[in-house]
Design goal:
single chain, mainly alpha
Length: 146
């Protein structure tokens, strides 16, 4: 989006927050069965992920804490390799505690069932396992700088 705007080939109309509101779940972390079966690996990965989300939020939030370091890591490890692009980008809204909005997921699922895109409505309590996230929060504590 930032590239399209900077090139003048388009304008930003509205962001997902303005269209969908604050409580819209737009992404989730999904563990495969084999990965999830390794409790230690799953816990360590989620702890590292949440730690990274917090660093990202701190760098792109009002405090801009360690922004240069975070941008350097991102340019070295993502497809966005120009540090100046990060000055134009609007950061993704990532929950620093990695909470899921189950109500939002359920509402989306209801829409997909009603529109015929999903035939059988699955029981979300059998699909969603927050144990890795809960472990990470116990290890890291709740994020309080938000």
């Amino acid at each position: 989006m930032s590239r399209i705007v900077s090139e003048g080939t388009g304008v930003r109309w509205k962001g997902s927050l303005e269209i969908l509101g604050h409580n819209q779940q737009v992404g989730v972390i999904v563990y495969g069965e084999q990965f999830a079966s390794n409790q230690d690996l799953g816990r360590r990965w989620m702890t590292a992920y949440i730690r990274g989300v917090r660093d990202y939020n701190d760098a792109f939030g009002p405090a801009k804490k360690d922004r240069d370091r975070v941008v350097r890591v991102l340019t070295q490890n993502t497809t966005v390799t120009d540090p100046l692009v990060y000055e134009q980008m609007r950061p993704a809204g990532l929950d620093p505690n990695s909470r899921l909005d189950i109500r939002s997921i359920d509402e989306d699922l209801k829409y997909y069932v009603e529109s015929g895109q999903v035939k059988d409505r699955p029981d979300l309590s059998h699909l969603i396992d927050t144990s890795f996230q809960q472990y990470a929060l116990q290890a890291l504590g709740q994020y309080t700088r938000y």
